[in-house]
Amino acid sequence: MTKAKVYHDGAVSGARRAVDAVMTVLLAALCIVWIYPVFLILINSLKAETAISTTSVFELPTAASFVGLGNYIYGITKLNFLSSFCYSLIITVTSVVLILLCCSMCGWYITRVPGIFSQAMYLLCVFSMVVPFQMVMFTLSKTADSLRLNTPFNIAIIYLGFGAGLAVFMFTGFMKSVPIAVEEAAMIDGCNALQIFFRIVFPILKPTMISTAILETMWVWNDYLLPTLVLDIKKYRTIPMAIQYFRGSYGKVEMGPMMACIMITVLPIIIMYLFCQKYIIEGVIAGAVKG
Amino acid sequence: MEKAIKKYWPVFLLPTFAAFVIGFIWPFLWGIYLSFHKFVTVSKTTFVGLDNYFSVFSDPTFVSAFWFTAKFTIVSTILINVLAFALALMLTRGLKGTNVFRTVFFLPNLIGGIVLGYIWQILLNGILTNLGLPLLALDAKYGFWGLIILMCWQQIGYMMIIYIAGLQNVPGDLIEAASIDGATSMQTLFKVKLPMVMPSVTICTFLTLTNSFKLFDQNLSLTGGEPAKASQMLALNIYDTIFSRSGAQWKGIGQAKAVIFFLLVVAIALVQLYFTRRKEVQQ
Question: How many structural domains does chain B have?
Answer without folding.
Answer: 2
